[in-house]
Specification:
The structure holds 2 protein chains of 2 kinds. Chain A is built from 15 helices and no strands. Chain A is mainly alpha-helical. Chain A is globular, with a radius of gyration of 27 Å. Chain B folds into 3 domains: 153 residues, P-loop containing nucleotide triphosphate hydrolases (Rossmann fold), CATH 3.40.50.300; 71 residues, no CATH class; 151 residues, 3-Layer(aba) Sandwich (Rossmann fold), CATH 3.40.50. Helices cover 32% and strands 24% of the residues of chain B. Chain B is built from 17 helices and 20 strands. In chain B, helix 14 runs parallel beside helix 15. The longest helix of chain B has 16 residues. Chain B is globular and about 70 Å long. The termini of chain B are far apart. Classes of the chains: A mainly alpha, B alpha/beta. At the A-B interface, helix 8, helix 9, helix 14 and helix 15 of A face strand 2, strand 10 and helix 11 of B.
Chain lengths: 407, 511
């Protein structure tokens, strides 16, 4: 045995860095593969060929106007997932994105209908501002109650969701109920149509997708907001404090971080982000506030945030993936005998697979990092000992044992 | 094979022989050709620094990891211990540092869990058996008590009973005293002596050398995965063991710098608060280290938390250079010049999930030097600070980008010291600053604390280790049940200080 036997050279850091960043992506792909295989078994159960069904889903998502539809579905989910993720980073579970965006749709509708005197872009900006404020008001309640009374945010936000649904119903029945004569009798309950200044322009046209796909400039806003959230988390004091609070609240507090202040701020930001969720529907798709609107984008956002592992950039990809699958519902109806609900099953399996694969990967990665760090620490320790000129005392007892062992 | 090893020593054949055990993890050799003999009726101490391979070796023996090379012999025959269940059938039991008990179950239910036998649970008979077992080895524990109501020491006894109930002849105790008060440790040692008399073989993993010298019959020292020597307490000493562990001489008594104490920096007056703050008054002067000795759980953590602002006192005052700190938020108190080494570096010190550079700035992240308008963090400056501090405080890590959780305990503590001392504080609160550290790291921490004194700072040292109190303090206060119960000179007899630690001499509060 040579003396250097226990000094292991550190691996190249480039490889490690690659491993750290590719790890989550790889586990997502593995999870997707597992979900597709399990889904394939179900498809066979329906007497269809998995290749045909998956082919149809991909075809619908990627060819023709497909990407336009997919991105239109992804747009609100990016906002929704970001709203969930930002609270999650600080160790809070905002189940209330659902209620927050519904309330925001009401406040935004008011601004759309009553502030039409503003010029186009300014009107849209003001509507978005009203949406943010609506979401923030609804998010402030659980945030403040959590910090001041310790009431759990999950319970409060679930209750606030119920109230929000009733609030939208009330609004669309009363102050915001349509007044247009043309609306007539055979029309679902809704608000008046918004003036053109309130609508967000089509973006899909630039790529040759037809306007029915409803891909709008909100997608650009979603991507910009995701980048801002990423910066907030990585580069700003608030994000730093939030991560510390989420990961080690005691150490954060001992480091002078006011946990309550951080939590309230994050809930407000989360609410503001939630405010954007309904805007695709309101300003790009319908152009009015529909009654009985139950798209459950807030809950889907939880799933997407999870798929994106609460990383702002990961969320963009996860939302697009979700969009591809959701768009696949139409493919199933038109091209196959598999019921459209299959997509929901597939999404469910995907989430389960991600839970399992990601946990396993995380544990393995953490263990490897720990072992590697241990080895490096020892190597550095040994190097320091040699540098300090204590090599003689180090080797002495070693010789003693090897003699003993040879005896 | 056993003849030449055991030559000239005891005639009892070894119960278990580990032969040339090698265990590698990716990038690490945790154990390299380790030989170890465990005999019935002896306490065998396994010592070494953190990461020396003690726990890995025992996990190989307990069937948690398969060895890459080498074999395990029991009674001369090779056995393959492929899982803890197999280990138990071979009479090997292990008590981990972190207990695995069902909190809401009774002692008996925990002990017989998994071994109930039959369909009908006869808890009454179980109580009887557990009581008998406990009596035989002098364990004071009530079989019907619910585990969550027990002290840590009692819970540990339940763990040992669990192993004995399963027929353990060999008991592996992984740093059993790390979680115990001195009193509880004494009681554990009594139990261990009875177990030894009953012919059990005990592996005692520790890096507390005084304890090892007190309880062990034989001592094996590991360093960097290899056995560097085997000895007995009679042939060894604390200094010799430490040198074997670390690979260089270690000083247990450092020279205290001569400093003329200056003006009082910290004055605590009649501090009252929830938990155990029952009217504490004390004073720490510049260039002075005041040590608070006491058994854990007598209000020390409440006191340190109140001083840094993590806990609101209900009455009394905390004056730093005459300014009132009581009731102010942590950030204010830190900004006023108080640095804090928490007793639990994971709970109140580091964010283990964050990188070293992110940890280095915690508590100073809103300093204009490190973050500016709109709360933008000056990452370059923070990283520069981290690079500098890691070199200055000799934190052994590959880069400042690794997560704090990947460092060893000693290096984590160095990181905290680096962060807290860099702020040039007026007062340093050091709560159990060397808890869980090995001898090399302890010496480093002690040197740093003495340097603070030499630099004219006030230091309040809170420690349950009397050795540490004596090694550093200029004045010793004892704390019991949330009160200061005595003041002693640094050369006072330990017996006298011990009286204060159990509340013996309540002194009138002098202001």
């Amino acid at each position: 045995m040579s003396d250097t036997g226990d000094v292991i050279a550190a691996r190249p850091s480039v490889g490690q860095r690659l491993e750290n960043s590719i790890g989550p992506l790889l586990s997502l792909l593995v999870a997707l593969a597992i979900a597709l295989v399990a889904g394939g078994a179900i498809i066979i159960g329906y007497g269809e060929s998995p290749a045909v069904v998956y082919g149809a889903i991909l075809d619908f998502a990627l060819t023709g106007d497909g990407p336009g539809y997919v991105l239109a579905i992804a747009t609100p989910l990016i906002f929704s997932a970001l709203a969930v993720a930002i609270c999650f980073k600080a160790g809070m579970f905002n189940i209330g994105v659902e209620g927050q965006y519904l309330v925001a749709m009401v406040t935004a509708t008011w601004a759309a209908l009553n502030l039409g005197f503003l010029p186009g872009p300014a009107h849209v900006a003001v509507i978005l501002l009203f949406a943010m404020i609506g979401g923030m008001i609804w998010a402030a309640v659980p945030g403040v109650l959590k910090v001041t009374t310790g009431a759990h945010e999950v319970v409060i936000t679930i209750m606030m969701n119920g109230i929000a649904i009733s609030f939208v119903n009330w609004a669309v029945n009363n102050p915001l109920k349509f007044t247009e004569a043309a609306a007539g009798t055979n029309v679902d309950l809704r608000s008046d149509r918004f003036p053109d200044t309130a609508l967000i322009g089509d973006l899909g046209g630039l790529f040759g997708y037809r306007s029915a796909a409803k891909m709008s400039w909100l997608l650009i806003l979603a991507i910009v907001v995701a980048l801002i959230v990423w910066l907030l988390m990585k580069r700003l004091r608030l994000g730093y404090e939030a991560r510390a609070v989420g990961s080690a609240p005691g150490s954060a507090r001992a480091g002078g971080v006011s946990i309550g202040a951080v939590q309230i701020k994050l809930f407000l930001i989360s609410g503001a982000l939630a405010g954007f969720v309904g805007m695709q529907q309101l300003l790009a798709d319908k152009g009015y506030l529909p009654g009985n609107y139950l798209a459950q984008l807030g809950f889907t956002g939880i799933a997407v945030a999870f798929l994106g592992q609460n990383n702002a950039i990961g969320i963009i990809f996860a939302a697009v993936l979700w969009g591809v699958l959701s768009r696949g519902e139409s493919a199933l109806q038109i091209r196959t005998d598999v019921p459209r609900e299959f997509v929901i099953i597939l999404q469910g399996i995907l989430i389960l697979a991600v839970v399992i694969v990601y946990q396993i990967a995380k544990r393995r990665l953490a263990r490897r990092q720990l072992q590697r760090a241990g080895a490096e620490e020892r190597a550095l320790e040994a190097a320091a000992a040699v540098a300090a000129g204590t090599a003689a005392t180090v080797s002495e007892p070693d010789n003693g044992t090897s003699d003993e062992a040879n005896a | 094979m056993m003849d030449d090893h055991g030559a000239g020593r005891e005639s009892a054949p070894p119960l278990v022989v580990l032969e040339k055990i090698t265990k590698r993890f990716p990038g690490v050799v945790a154990n390299e050709a380790v030989d170890l003999e465990l005999r019935a009726g002896e306490v065998h101490a396994l010592i070494g620094e953190n990461g020396a391979g003690k726990s890995t070796l025992m996990q190989v023996l307990y069937g948690i990891y398969p060895p890459d090379e080498g074999r395990i012999l029991m009674g001369g025959n090779e056995v393959r211990v492929t899982s803890p269940r197999v280990a138990i059938t071979h009479g090997i039991g292990m008590v981990h540092q972190h207990f695995v008990l069902v909190d809401t179950f009774s002692v008996t239910e925990n002990v017989i869990l998994g071994e109930e036998g039959g369909r009908i649970l006869d808890v009454g008979a179980g109580h009887e058996e557990v009581a008998n077992l406990a009596r035989r080895y002098g364990f004071t524990v009530r079989p019907s008590a619910v585990v969550e109501d027990l002290s840590v020491g009692e819970q540990q006894r339940v763990e040992i009973l669990k192993a004995l109930y399963r027929g353990a002849e060999l008991l592996i105790l992984d740093e059993p005293t790390a979680v115990l008060t001195p009193g509880e440790s004494k009681e554990l040692f009594e139990n261990l002596r009875l177990l030894r008399e009953a012919g059990k073989s005990i592996v005692f993993i520790s890096h507390k050398l005084d304890e090892v010298l007190e309880i062990a019959d034989r001592i094996t020292v590991l360093r960097r995965g290899r056995v560097v020597g085997e000895t007995t307490p009679a042939r060894s000493s604390k200094a010799k063991l430490a040198e074997m562990m670390v690979g260089r001489p270690v000083l247990f008594r450092l020279d205290k710098p001569e400093v003329e104490p200056g003006e009082p920096v910290l004055r605590v007056e009649h501090l009252l608060g929830e938990g155990k703050l029952n009217g504490i008054s004390l004073e720490v002067r510049a260039g002075e280290i005041v040590g608070i000795a006491g058994v854990d759980g007598n209000g020390q953590s409440e006191l340190s938390e109140a001083l840094i602002g993590l806990r609101q006192p209900t009455a009394g005052s905390i004056l730093l250079d005459g300014d009132e700190l009581a009731g102010r938020p942590v950030q204010d108190i830190r900004n006023a010049g108080v640095a804090y080494i928490p007793q639990d570096r994971h709970e109140q010190g580091l964010v283990l999930d964050m990188s070293l550079w992110e940890n280095v700035v915690l508590g100073r992240h809103d300093d204009p030097a490190f973050s500016g308008a709109f709360g933008v963090l000056f990452i370059k400056k923070i990283r520069d600070l981290a690079e500098r501090l890691i070199r200055k405080f000799d934190v052994r890590a590959r880069s400042i980008a690794v997560k704090a959780g990947t460092l060893s305990g000693g290096n984590q503590q160095k990181l905290i010291l680096a962060r807290e001392l860099e702020t040039d504080p007026k007062l340093l609160i050091a709560a159990q600053p060397t808890r869980g550290l090995d001898v090399g790291a302890i010496e480093f921490v002690w040197r740093q604390i003495l340097e603070q004194k030499a630099a004219g700072r006030a230091v309040l040292l809170i420690s349950a280790e009397l050795d540490e109190i004596y090694a550093l303090s200029d004045r010793i206060l004892t704390m019991y049940e949330g009160r200061i119960t005595g003041e002693y000179a640094p050369d006072a007899a330990p017996e006298d200080v011990g009286v204060g630690m159990v509340g013996g001499a309540i002194v009138e509060e002098a202001s």
